[in-house]
Amino acid sequence: MNKKHWITLLLMGIFILACKKDVVLKDHPVIGEISKFLGFQKPVNFPEPTYNFANNKVTKEGFELGRALFYEPRLSRNNTITCGSCHIQSSAFTQHGHDVSHGIDDRLGTRNSPPIMNLAWNKSFMWGGGIYDLDLQPIAPITTHEEMDEKLENVFNKLRQLPKYTELFKRAFGTEEISTARFMKALSQFMLMCVSSNSKYDQVMRKEGNAVFTAEEQEGYNLFKQKCASCHSEPLFTDGSFRNNGLGISPINDQGLYLATLIGTDRYKFKVPSLRNLRFTAPYMHDGRFLSLAGALEHYNSEVQDTPNLDPLLIKGDKRGIDLTENDKVKLTAFLSTLNDEEFINNKLLAEQ
Question: For a designed S-S bond to 130, which of 111, 260, 333, 339 qualifies (C-beta 3.0 to 4.6 A apart)?
Fold first, then answer.
């Protein structure tokens, strides 16, 4: 076969491959996932994000660096704990099975690991506040004694010894230099991509396909809007505020937001969590005291404590809490189940590679 025939066959092969591009990409497990990366995409039923993307645009390279760092044990003092240790994807990035976080040397924290999802719409972070920029948030778990117990410079020195990271930083930022700003921005890019927006609720709201609530779910939705939406506002199912929901004073006297602000009226206020993915994020509340959703609902019905700074929405004359019949709780549970997002917890792009 002469050279001309070889060239002809080669061109035909390229043409056939191009025609089958979608099939090739779909069938290849790595290329297929990479091909899906579109950067940060705002769901159509969500408001505009609060994060300033102008200062940190999500790129494929930055996201991949952030993902590697999120699952990197060298962020901890003894190289055993990753961000993913306390934020497990199958549990909507919470630490399933623990009431409070378990960190390095199995040290116990004082609060439940909050889920990592929809952070682009958050103005503040942590159960008790004190951090108002996502790019600064990782400093807390890395340096906290009960979590990773490490210093940032030690982390950077360990990463600098690995050619993997010098290459990843170069791809993401055009330089091998590992700095605090680049390190934090890369982690933010990963966390910003942890968007949960494809639950049944979202599909109903977007009128996708034939998605509709069942009669019980619709009744639960109506009850939710009457009794819960003041704090857990749609579509994020949190208003991002800090409130005292009447849990009572804990044995360790965790005073919540007050520890960050030192303002007396902030005592015992904690961040209102999102109600998305409740099937995966038990136990509930800032200290993980309720093992089931039924327990959390009963708290609001009959167990609200009249502690200092109790949220006014939970004060109705002599009554503390929210009146919920057994039937109400069944219907609310049905609606809250529509907020679970299976696609989110199974998204391969967010998994450890």
Answer: 260
The three-class DSSP label of residue 270 is: strand
Question: What pTM value is reported for the model?
Answer: 0.88
- CA angle 75/257/272 to nearest 5° reads 85
Is 28 annotated as a binding-site member?
A: no
For the chain, the C-alpha Rg in angstroms (whole number) is 23
Name the pairing type of β-strands 319-320 and 315-316.
Answer: antiparallel
Element (H, E) at 328: helix 326-336
What is the b/e burial string over 199-227, where b = at least 16 CB atoms within 10 angstroms of the residue's CB?
bbbbbbbeeeeeeebeeebbbbbebbeeb
User: What tens digit of pLDDT does each residue of 87-144 get?
Assistant: 999 999 999 888 999 999 999 999 999 999 999 999 999 999 999 999 999 999 999 9
* Cβ proximity of 148 and 77 under 8 Å: yes
The verdict on whether residue 98 carries a ligand-binding annotation is no
Q: Which domains does the chain have, with CATH numbers?
A: 10-35 (no CATH), 53-195 (1.10.760.10), 200-343 (1.10.760.10)
Q: Is 228 marked as binding a ligand?
A: yes
Tokens read off for 147: 């979590």
Find out whether 348 and 233 touch, Cβ atoms under 8 Å.
Answer: no
Phi, psi values for residue 284, rounded to 5°: -115, 160
Distance of alpha carbon 138 from its chain centroid, rounded? 13
